[in-house]
């Protein structure tokens, strides 16, 4: 009997050597463990044995079955692994091919700058105020201390709709609206971004529509130092911490004193280059202390309150920051133009210029 | 204002200060410098005398001249100018001379003849041809016969000058004069201003018929006139010519030049009439409607009742403050002159000059004049006419004056100055600045009483004085600080918040924001809307295509798409948020809209995937995602009604929120564009205030979902939204979701039918659903749909 067992084991070993896939493995399983398989057949001899022998033979038979099952199982694991490896190999791709095209939607560069400025000023306790683009002569000019007959009120320079209404030529009327709307005459901190209109023929540096951001602070004891500090914060936020600002006296009817505000040229860092025409400074915005007449016009007592105001041209900031030479590019919206601004800017200087 | 440094030096000594340093300083006190230039950028030029002229042996056009250059030296110079001749005094550039543009002169041989220098034309010295006198046009410049041979020609011509081109702010009318500039520069460098000589001898005129003056309008508050006789018209002295050229004014003759010279000195325009043509009667009045007058430039002008004119007893002879008349012009034959020095209403001068012509005079009148200079300027002109035109000045001055000479005194405290400037100046420092500016004043208890000179029309309130102190002290050392008063959190308006959310959703979905112009044309104003509205129209516009304020953003977006497609930028997804305007009776209404336009693929085709083409359902998905994100309360519907003709009638819809139309969506009509473009536009204002105030969280059910499909064949024209509503209606609480996963029309079913398959998701929040419960509801739904829509369940 033992001989038979040994023979079966040897035969199995030989059969298994020929197995190379799951099918042939299964054939071997049937050949040995199937209903008519060699191991099963051995058990038919059981009935010819006495009780002692039966017990002995039962043990042997059981061991044989287990041994065959183990051999089959380990071969099965091996074949499965081989088959998986073959499949994975067949599934291999060229990882250097480009990825499928997805698109991150972009915010227009002008609105990106507006948002940056808004976020800064909100963080400093300013409200973002709004006003209509169709504005009254009264708010756009008269109450801003530009009386009738002032050259800026000329129909040649502004888009009038009728004698009283025009497309606002500046965001400054929002100052007036905000001060008038504040019935308790409490302190004010606002910025106001928006579209403005001037009767200029479009060319590389002029646009009949453009964007401004207006700022206004009215409070007790506001001085020019506060104006400078605030504009420094904005300049640093937009152009980096190294930028310095300077005030040049100027004239606007609605502020007194008035200034043109220059930044150190960010291209040459103040050494003088073609961008700053050799001066090391670039004019970026107008500002000043709110004219007492403007405060009075809006019900604020200029003896108690002072304030500052500033106005920034958004296109100008964008053109300087990114060295864009033609203002019309902002309004033609070529996707090759727009996509260049669809990127994160860390604002940290981590590479040499 | 172009400022000659030599001239300025007459009134305030600055010849020791480098011109570039002045140019650097000026912007810091508020006067931008356009440019710094030399009147003539040449060296080593001498005055020569042509002693002989021979024809060049080898050239028809050249002459060989022997030129006396002083100190007994005579040089041979070849000259090609037609007007060169023996005995002329000329400008000679000797070897080693430099001319503008870096040209260096050296001895040369011209066609075999030696030439040791060059006889110069004024243009070769960098003088603009408009300044070149008639006799020197097209050739070399011929100097006066008394020009001293051998002397420096540049000095002789007074061309050794620097010019500062100063850009003035609108309020500084005082700087439109050399004297004003002198006070400004004097304040910077703390130097005294020296006033010009206004003295002259008067000739008694009791035997001569006197001038009479009749001012008939309030628009001439001050008018002075004086007669001078026996003038000799000739060329002006070189210094006057050079200074006028530096200022950008063409020298004409001594008399005309003097009127311009005095205007530049004092900022007070003068007008000289030929007395014999004018007569003795001067009337200042408003022009009559359609009154005709020919101005100095020979153009007949049609006047109106807002123009101020000077007239004699016959006709209008000058357009006050703007330009003189041809009939009383000073010419080479003029003997006697009537000088006018006057002040007119600046607003009217501006109107007239704008409709007729802008002149150096009108520029000054428009900004307002110092009434205390009217007489000084008149006297200065008399002084110069006596000196340079041999004039005799008659003693009578006729005058009309309604000007109150009240001195402006402004009171301001040291504390206020320092508070506004954020500085800590002492009273001595402040007083010193006022003194430098030529303001007289007193200080008591740290309060200043400042007497402002009449020339400074720009100073009227204490803040104006603060600016003067600030700009002369300098802002260089100002320290920036942030306001330190009570702070509150910064806020944005609800609309601004809503717009930010809209932009966030649309960019997340891959759309690019654009900004287009708000002004539009008659042709585009009514496109892509069925609304009846009155468009906002500009009373005067730049061009017909920018005449109206737009009502819909879509036309601009479609143009932007086509612009990009024509540049091979394909697969476009763009949106814009913008204000639109219309008129409702007499009210101008502002409304914010969001619009988008898409074309090509939404997701691009690559070697790997087929991509997603943008179609109606892609754009609808964007709108649905947007509205879903905005968390708007109420019911949205897409209906094929009220479609503007610019939309594809079969592939577009009106969008409704709670039965109010809020926008449109769809493909644009093929007649609008050869490209397949999809658009939507929604009123942001109509969404405002409709969003839920917060997210309502619902716990996720722990019990399993049961998913069942059903498909029906039904009439093709049944709108599926109705079937879905019916399914939901009978779904009880356990029907959580209904999706359409297949729509089929084609060969396998009747041609007027379609097959639509739905996926239904059932779930209970509190227990595991049994199959019986689900099937009971499922079967109810089927029978209701079959009944209501005459539908047949498929694959039973």
What does this structure look like?
The complex is a heterodimer of chains A (353) and B (796). In chain A, 40% of the residues lie in helices and 18% in strands. Chain A has 353 residues and is an alpha+beta fold. Chain A has 2 domains: 2-90; 109-341, Bira Bifunctional Protein, Domain 2 (BirA Bifunctional Protein, domain 2, 2-Layer Sandwich), CATH 3.30.930. In chain A, the strands form 2 sheets. Chain A has a 7-stranded mixed β-sheet, sandwiched between helices. In chain A, strands 2-3 form a two-stranded antiparallel ribbon. In chain A, a hairpin with a 2-residue loop joins strand 6 (245-252) and strand 7. Chain A is rod-shaped. The termini of chain A are far apart. Chain B is of the alpha+beta class and 796 residues long. Chain B has 6 domains: 2-39 and 162-189, Phenylalanyl-tRNA Synthetase, Chain B, domain 1, CATH 3.30.56; 43-156, Nucleic acid-binding proteins (OB fold (Dihydrolipoamide Acetyltransferase, E2P), Beta Barrel); 202-401, Phenylalanyl-tRNA Synthetase, Chain B, domain 3 (3-Layer(bba) Sandwich), CATH 3.50.40; 409-473, Phenylalanyl-tRNA Synthetase, Chain B, domain 1; 494-683, Bira Bifunctional Protein, Domain 2 (BirA Bifunctional Protein, domain 2, 2-Layer Sandwich), CATH 3.30.930; 706-793, Alpha-Beta Plaits, CATH 3.30.70. Helices cover 24% and strands 30% of the residues of chain B. Chain B has 18 helices and 43 strands. In chain B, the strands form 11 sheets. In chain B, strands 3, 4, 5, 6, 7, 10 and 11 form a 7-stranded antiparallel β-sheet that branches. In chain B, strand 8 and strand 9 (113-115) form a beta hairpin. Chain B is elongated and about 130 Å long. The termini of chain B are far apart. Chains A and B meet through helix 5, strand 1, strand 4, strand 5 and helix 8 of A and helix 8, helix 11, helix 13, helix 14 and strand 28 of B.
Which key phrases capture this entry?
heterodimer; A: 353 residues; 7-stranded mixed beta sheet; two-stranded antiparallel sheet; 12 helices; 9 strands; B: 796 residues; alpha+beta; Phenylalanyl-tRNA Synthetase, Chain B, domain 1; OB fold (Dihydrolipoamide Acetyltransferase, E2P); Phenylalanyl-tRNA Synthetase, Chain B, domain 3; 7-stranded antiparallel beta sheet
């Amino acid at each position: 009997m033992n001989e038979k067992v040994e023979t079966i084991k040897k035969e199995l070993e030989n059969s298994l050597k020929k197995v190379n896939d799951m099918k042939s493995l299964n054939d071997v399983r049937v050949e040995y463990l199937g209903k008519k398989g060699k191991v099963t057949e051995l058990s038919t001899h059981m009935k010819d044995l006495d009780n002692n022998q039966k017990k002995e033979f039962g043990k042997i038979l059981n061991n044989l079955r287990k041994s065959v099952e183990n051999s089959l199982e380990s071969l099965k694991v091996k074949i499965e692994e081989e088959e998986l490896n073959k499949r994975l190999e067949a599934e291999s791709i060229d990882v250097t091919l480009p990825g499928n095209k997805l698109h991150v939607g972009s915010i227009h560069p002008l609105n990106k700058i507006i948002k940056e400025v808004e976020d800064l000023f909100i963080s400093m306790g300013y409200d973002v105020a709004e006003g209509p683009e169709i504005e009254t002569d009264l708010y756009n000019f008269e109450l801003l201390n530009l009386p009738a007959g002032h050259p800026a009120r000329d129909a040649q320079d502004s888009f009038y709709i009728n004698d009283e209404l025009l497309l606002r030529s500046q965001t400054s009327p929002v100052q007036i609206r905000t001060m008038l709307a504040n019935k308790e005459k409490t302190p004010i901190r606002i910025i106001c971004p928006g579209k403005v209109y001037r009767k200029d023929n479009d060319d590389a540096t002029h646009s009949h529509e453009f964007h401004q951001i207006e700022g206004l602070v009215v409070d007790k004891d506001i001085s020019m130092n506060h104006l400078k500090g605030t504009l420094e914060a904005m300049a640093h936020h937009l152009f980096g911490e190294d930028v310095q600002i300077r005030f040049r006296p100027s004239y606007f009817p609605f502020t007194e004193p008035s200034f043109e505000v220059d930044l150190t040229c960010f291209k040459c860092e103040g050494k003088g280059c073609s961008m700053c025409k050799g001066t090391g400074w670039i004019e970026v915005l107008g500002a000043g202390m709110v004219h007492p007449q403007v405060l009075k016009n809006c019900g604020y007592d200029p003896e108690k309150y002072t304030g500052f105001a500033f106005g920034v041209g958004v296109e100008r900031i964008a053109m300087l920051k990114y060295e864009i030479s033609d203002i019309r590019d902002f309004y033609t919206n070529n996707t090759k133009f727009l996509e260049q601004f669809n990127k994160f800017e860390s604002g940290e200087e981590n590479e040499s210029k | 204002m172009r400022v000659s440094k030599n001239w300025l030096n007459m009134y305030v000594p600055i010849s020791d200060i480098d011109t570039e340093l002045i140019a650097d300083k000026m912007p810091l006190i508020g006067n931008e410098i356009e440019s710094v230039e030399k009147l003539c950028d040449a060296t080593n030029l001498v005055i020569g005398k042509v002693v002989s002229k021979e024809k060049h042996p080898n050239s028809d056009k050249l002459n060989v001249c022997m030129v006396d250059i002083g100190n007994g030296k005579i040089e041979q110079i070849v000259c090609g100018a037609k007007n060169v001749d023996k005995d002329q005094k000329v400008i000679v550039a000797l070897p080693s001379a430099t001319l503008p543009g870096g040209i260096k002169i050296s001895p040369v041989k011209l066609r075999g003849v030696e030439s040791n220098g060059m006889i110069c034309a004024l243009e070769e010295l960098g003088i603009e041809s408009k300044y070149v006198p008639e006799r020197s046009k097209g050739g070399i410049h011929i100097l006066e016969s008394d020009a001293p041979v051998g002397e420096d020609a540049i000095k002789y011509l007074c061309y050794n000058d620097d010019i500062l081109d100063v850009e003035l702010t609108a309020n500084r009318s005082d700087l439109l004069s050399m004297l004003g500039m002198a006070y400004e520069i004097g304040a910077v460098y703390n130097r005294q201003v020296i006033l010009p000589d206004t003295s002259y001898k008067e000739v008694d005129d009791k035997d001569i018929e006197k001038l009479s003056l009749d001012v008939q309008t309030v628009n001439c508050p001050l008018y002075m006139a004086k007669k001078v006789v026996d003038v000799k018209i000739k060329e002006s002295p070189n210094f006057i010519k050079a200074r006028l050229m530096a200022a950008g004014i063409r020298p004409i003759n001594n008399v005309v030049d003097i009127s311009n010279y005095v205007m530049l000195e004092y900022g007070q325009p003068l007008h000289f009439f030929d007395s014999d043509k004018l007569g003795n009667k001067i009337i200042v009045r408003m022009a009559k409607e359609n009154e005709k007058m020919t101005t100095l430039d020979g153009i007949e002008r049609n006047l109106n009742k807002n123009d101020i004119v000077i007239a004699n007893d016959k006709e209008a002879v000058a357009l006050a403050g703007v330009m003189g008349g041809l009939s009383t012009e000073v010419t080479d034959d003029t003997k006697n002159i009537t000088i006018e020095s006057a002040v007119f209403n600046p607003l009217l001068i501006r109107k007239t000059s704008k409709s007729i012509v802008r002149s150096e005079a009108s520029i000054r009148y428009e900004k307002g004049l110092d009434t205390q200079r009217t007489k000084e300027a008149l006297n200065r002109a008399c002084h110069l006419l006596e000196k340079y035109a041999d004039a005799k000045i008659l003693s009578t001055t006729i005058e009309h004056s309604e000007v109150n000479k009240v001195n402006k005194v402004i009171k301001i405290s040291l504390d206020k100055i320092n508070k506004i400037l954020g500085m800590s100046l002492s009273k001595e420092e402040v007083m010193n600045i006022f003194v430098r500016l030529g303001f007289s004043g007193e200080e008591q208890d740290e309060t200043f009483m400042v007497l402002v000179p009449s020339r400074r029309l720009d100073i009227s309130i204490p803040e104006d004085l603060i600016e003067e102190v600030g700009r002369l002290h300098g802002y260089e050392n100002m320290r920036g600080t942030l306001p330190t008063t009570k702070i509150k959190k910064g806020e944005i308006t609800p609309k601004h918040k809503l717009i930010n959310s809209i932009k966030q959703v649309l960019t997340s979905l891959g759309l690019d924001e654009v900004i287009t112009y708000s002004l539009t044309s008659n042709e585009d104003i009514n496109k892509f809307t069925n609304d009846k509205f009155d468009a906002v129209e500009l009373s005067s516009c730049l061009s017909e295509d920018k005449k109206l304020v737009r009502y819909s953003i879509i036309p601009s977006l479609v143009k932007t798409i086509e612009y990009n497609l024509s540049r091979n930028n394909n697969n476009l997804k763009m949106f814009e948020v913008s204000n639109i305007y219309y008129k409702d009776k007499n009210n101008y209404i502002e409304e914010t809209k969001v619009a988008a336009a898409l074309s090509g693929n939404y997701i691009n085709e690559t070697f790997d995937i087929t991509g997603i083409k943008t179609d109606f359902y892609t754009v609808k998905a964007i709108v649905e995602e947007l509205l879903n994100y905005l968390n708007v309360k109420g019911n949205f519907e897409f209906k094929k009604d009220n479609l503007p003709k610019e939309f594809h009638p079969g592939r577009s819809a009106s969008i409704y929120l709670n039965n109010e139309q809020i926008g449109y969506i769809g493909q644009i009509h093929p007649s609008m564009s050869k490209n397949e473009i999809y658009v939507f536009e929604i009123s942001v204002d109509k969404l405002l205030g409709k969003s839920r105030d917060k997210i309502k969280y619902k716990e996720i059910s722990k019990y399993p979902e049961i998913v069942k499909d059903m498909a029906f064949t039904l009439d093709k024209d049944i709108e599926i939204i109705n079937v879905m509503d019916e399914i939901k209606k009978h779904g009880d609480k356990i029907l959580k979701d209904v999706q359409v996963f297949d729509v089929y029309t084609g060969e396998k079913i009747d041609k007027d039918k379609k097959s639509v398959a739905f996926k239904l998701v059932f779930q209970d929040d509190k227990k595991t659903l049994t199959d019986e419960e689900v099937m009971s509801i499922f079967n109810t739904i089927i029978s209701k749909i079959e009944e209501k829509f005459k539908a047949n369940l498929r694959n039973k």
